[in-house]
Design goal:
Strands 3-2-1-4 form a four-stranded parallel beta sheet, sandwiched between helices. By secondary structure, it is of the alpha/beta class. Helix 1 links the parallel strand 1 and strand 2.
């Protein structure tokens, strides 16, 4: 299966929700939301979305820590389901019509991907 990975904290959660709504409208691929030190599993707007938490190892909000957390979410997803394909998308992005066709075209060009 193919999934979209979205990583956010409380401050960017509204953007992530908008991103998820656009993905649900324009894509058959399922979104998985990773909260940066946050557990959003109780959020009613995220029902039907895979919600996981990336533990925050520091209280720092530096760019390096944020990138590290994003990488951890990608590694976690691959460890949990190594046979699946994961596409990381920033929380402030949104999907367009035919996004699945666009992604499928490019995935088909890869000879070996995790």
């Amino acid at each position: 299966m193919t999934y979209f990975l979205i990583h956010t904290d409380q401050n960017y959660l509204p953007y992530a929700k908008r991103c998820i709504r656009s993905l649900q409208k324009h894509s058959a691929y399922k979104p998985i939301l990773y909260g940066y030190g946050e557990d959003f599993s109780g959020d009613a707007e995220l029902q039907g979305v895979g919600v996981r938490e990336t533990p925050r190892t520091t209280t720092s909000l530096s760019r390096i820590d944020a990138c590290n957390a994003r990488l951890k979410s990608c590694v976690h997803a691959l460890e949990k389901n190594p046979e699946d394909v994961f596409i990381f998308i920033d929380a402030d992005m949104f999907a367009i019509q035919d996004i699945d066709f666009f992604i499928d075209q490019h995935l088909a060009r890869l000879s070996d991907h995790p």
